[in-house]
Amino acid sequence: MGKSDNKNIVTIGGGTGSYALLSGLKKYPLNISAIVSMADDGGSTGTLRDELGVLPPGDVRQCLVALSDSSEALRKIMNYRFENGGFKGHSFGNIFLSALEKTSGTFAEGVEKAAKILNVSGEVIPVSEEQMRLYVCLKNGKILAGENCLDHNEEIRLIGVKKIFLNPQVKASKKAVERIKNADFIIIGPGDLFGSIMPNFLVKGIGEAIKKSRAKIIFNCNLTNKKGQTEKFSLEDYVSAVEKCIGKSKIDFVIFNKGKLPEKLVAKYEKREGGGSVVQIKNKNFFRKYKIVMADVSQRKLAQKSKDGGNAKIQSFLRHDSEKLGKVLMLVMNLGDYEDIVREII
């Protein structure tokens, strides 16, 4: 895990949001434990789940690559996606992790072996070692099956999401609960609220562990909303949704982007299928127990497009800048170390 005097950091999320977060934090002297959602069932991951009966490797792969100190070539191989033949659409890293699960006995053991091979700084922990199946309840009562439908369903964009749930219920990984218990800071997000963040809190034991934890909790607020899911959500709406799962007034800091987003890019995003508005603060003067850290944490340019089929368009839009986010988080996490000194200087 690292030196005992380093801060113990637990991150909770999944997808590209966790990739950006971990890429920004890994260069600092921290004991990082990345807890990752196991709800993904789209694309290569979904096919491997259905055909091989393995746990979803996609989000775990991204976190492993983000924390890896291996060569750039090896990281590229892990993210390489086949374009032709029988492996078309599959990521090499996904196949690699599925093979490790089969040969190791469990997915968690396979992830630990992959972490050693990739020389990972920290650890990546599946939120549960059981098969997670996510269901989406629309505002008209209709039930849709699968996390993948959140990004690829016209009904969701038109009708809207009322809630999500797991069926059957699954238990949290013992290691995930243990790391939350011993954390100095718990960092939630960024990422899709219903697809990457909330599924972790639906796992039995995660929300309870956070409620009992003495760790300071930091929430990275999203840059933009999604049609049918978080449409018209404000910063306060995001905080409220998360605190319903982890306990009222549990969040200590919220990182909110104040960097100027390119107008052309924002307009393009808002017109995109499934796109939405930029997140705003509803009332800056409203009394709140958490502190809002306003900082420039957004990218200034288009991200390189992914070759991940249906995700290619999504990857090219607005996202957090990993280096900026890492710097802001380190500042926030070290505030307590200097409070007494600052008071003394004043």
Q: Compute the number of helices.
A: 15
- Care to count the β-strands? 10
Low-confidence stretches: 303-316
Give the strand order, joined by hyphens, for the main sheet.
3-2-1-7-8-9-10
Tell me the Rg in angstroms.
19 Å
Biggest sheet record: 7 strands, parallel
Structural class: alpha/beta
Descriptive keywords:
41% helix, 10 strands, alpha/beta, 346 residues, 3-stranded antiparallel β-sheet, 7-stranded parallel β-sheet
Description:
This protein is of the alpha/beta class and 346 residues long. 41% of the residues lie in helices and 15% in strands. The protein has helices spanning 15-25, 43-52, 58-67, 72-79, 92-104, 107-117, 154-159, 174-181, 193-201, 206-212, 235-246, 263-271, 312-315, 322-333, 335-345; strands spanning 7-13, 30-36, 123-126, 134-138, 143-145, 161-166, 185-188, 216-220, 253-257, 291-295. The strands form 2 sheets. Strands 3-2-1-7-8-9-10 form a 7-stranded parallel β-sheet, with helices on both faces. Strands 5-4-6 form a 3-stranded antiparallel β-sheet. Strand 8, helix 11 and strand 9 form a beta-alpha-beta unit. The radius of gyration is 19 Å and the shape is globular. It starts with 6 loop residues before the first strand and ends with a helix.
Question: Summarize this, please?
Answer:
With 346 residues, the protein is α/β, with parallel strands linked by helices. The chain is built from 15 helices and ten strands.
